[in-house]
């Protein structure tokens, strides 16, 4: 077998010798699946997957809210106009609805659909902002002041009188440390 340098160009004659062995990619039976399973079941990956699924569901709810509740009220205020049928035909012909224009294959600028998308985005952004603000409030409420045990150097709650790890009394030590 002829030695082929990595700088040699790949052609029909040396293709078979230059091809990389695909077996390292197929290590599923020899621990590869175990590694993938450990990766996929990490908390952060699962949290991300759950977040994406909930985000899709939340997006559908918001889309329905905008199209079925908000936009009818807005169109009623502005004179019974349907935002989803607001468009400009680039052919110069007049079409009654966007569906009729699309059925003929006419190019259109669909600014009404774009306005719906902007309104969807604004409502989702406000909803996410309110959700994140509440989560941050709960995190701030759950913040516990910690200190280090002077005997075993473990992290313990500052209000503790005994270390849960070495069972030493830390109330007296805290008072002595404050005076010195």
CATH-defined fold name of one domain: Non-ribosomal Peptide Synthetase Peptidyl Carrier Protein, Chain A
Mean pLDDT across residues: 77
Tell me what the CATH architecture of one domain is. Orthogonal Bundle
Number of strands: 4
Q: What spatial order of strands do you see in the largest sheet?
A: 1-2
Query: Strand share of the residues?
Result: 5-15%
Q: Summary?
A:
This protein is mostly helical and 180 residues long.
Please describe the structure with a list of short key phrases separated by commas or semicolons.
two-stranded antiparallel sheet; 53% helix; Non-ribosomal Peptide Synthetase Peptidyl Carrier Protein, Chain A; 4 strands; 180 residues; disordered C terminus; mainly alpha
Protein architecture, described:
By secondary structure, the chain is mainly alpha-helical. Among the domains are: 83 residues, Non-ribosomal Peptide Synthetase Peptidyl Carrier Protein, Chain A (Orthogonal Bundle); 34 residues, no CATH class. Helix content is 53%, strand content 6%. The protein contains six helices and four strands; from the N terminus they run H-H-H-E-H-E-H-E-E-H. The strands form two sheets. Strands 1-2 form a two-stranded antiparallel ribbon. The protein has a two-stranded antiparallel ribbon with strand order 3-4. A hairpin with a 6-residue loop joins strand 3 and strand 4. The longest helix is centred in the middle third of the chain and has 35 residues. The termini are far apart.
């Amino acid at each position: 077998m002829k030695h082929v340098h990595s700088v040699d160009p790949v052609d029909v004659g040396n293709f078979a010798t230059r091809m990389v062995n695909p077996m390292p990619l197929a290590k599923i039976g020899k621990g590869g699946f175990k590694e993938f399973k450990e990766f996929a079941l990490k908390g952060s990956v699962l949290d991300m997957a759950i977040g994406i699924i909930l985000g899709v569901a939340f997006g559908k709810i918001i889309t329905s809210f905008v199209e079925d509740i908000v936009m009818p009220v807005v169109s009623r205020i502005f004179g019974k106009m349907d935002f989803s049928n607001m468009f400009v035909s680039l052919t110069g012909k007049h079409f009654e609805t966007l569906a009729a224009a699309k059925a003929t294959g006419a190019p259109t600028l669909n600014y009404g659909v774009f306005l719906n998308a902007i309104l969807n985005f604004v409502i989702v952004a406000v909803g996410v902002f309110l959700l994140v603000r509440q989560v941050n409030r709960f995190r701030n409420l759950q913040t516990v002041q910690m200190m280090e045990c002077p005997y075993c150097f473990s992290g313990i709650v500052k209000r503790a009188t005994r270390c849960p790890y070495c069972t030493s009394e830390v109330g007296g030590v805290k008072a002595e440390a404050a005076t010195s």
